[in-house]
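Amino Acid Chain and Its Fold in Token Form
===========================================
Structure side: the spatial fold of the chain, written down as a series of whole-number tokens.
Position: the record begins directly beneath this header, with no further notes in between.
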Amino acid sequence: MALILDRSKMVGVRAARLIAALAALSVSSILAAWPEKPIKVFIGYAPGGSTDVVARLLAPKLGEKLGQPLIIENKPGGAGDFAAELMLQTPADGYTLLMTTVAVHAINPGLYKTRKFHPIDDFTPVALIASYPMILIASPQTTFKTIAELKELAARTPTFYSSSGIGSPGHLAGELLVRALDAPITHVPYKGGSPSVLAVMTGEAQLNFATLPAVVPQIRGGKVRAIGLASRERNLAVPEVPTLIELGVTDFEVGTWTGLVAPKGLPHDIVDRINAAVAAVVNDPGVKRRLLDEGAEIRLMAPTEFGTFMRAENLRWVKVVRDAGITPQ
């Protein structure tokens, strides 16, 4: 009887080992074959914004490196949260990624009481790509040149600042400026960065905090007025534009960043392949020149470093939102 039980136990162990071996072989085959079809990249903002600009700049060469085309899909809403929710509903197989921003992982957690996902733990950090400062732009119909003149404008006539949506970096920057100036400037959210910049171009809104790459062409074309950068240093793309700190707004620094993330559980081999491909594309002389010319600052990191960076940004910006007195919605 004992012999029969021992044999049965041995058969069970062998079967378990066989199943494990087959599973490992299956995973290995999947990793070796990846990618076998086009890769979708969700963007949580309307076409024309900085995240969209960077994604479309990198996509062709990144597709060449990976051996499959990248399909950009804009899913605006919730300051990037809607696209994140959609991506997190997909398998962690490397075929659906999110071109994410600081808003999803660091700013929104301080602005919203409830969200459908954890800003860090539900994601696989893949590749940080670039960062860029916010820039205060004004309608060409305005004439103010100094911060004092802006305060005077707001005091005598209704003044509005547009943003790409509630919870966006532009919204946060605007609220911080309103509080720094103690000026009656009203926020008007739009569905994306491009519509919010158009509102300034047409005079529908007087002000906007935009990510620099999204508005360099409009600044150079005279379609908007560049007032000041929300950074500590000037930017090579617009060297003539002062910082807001230079204009007298103390310690005013608000920027954003762009990177690729995936659902939690994406295999390390796929993460590393995408990260290496991103680094190769961003270091391509033509791509690097385009990024720098549009105001971006290249920020390449290993996946683990990117994850650490995301956590640090989360702690930093949740505190900024709280210290600014912005009430979570």
In short: Residues 23-27 have pLDDT under 50 and may be disordered. The chain has eleven helices and ten strands.
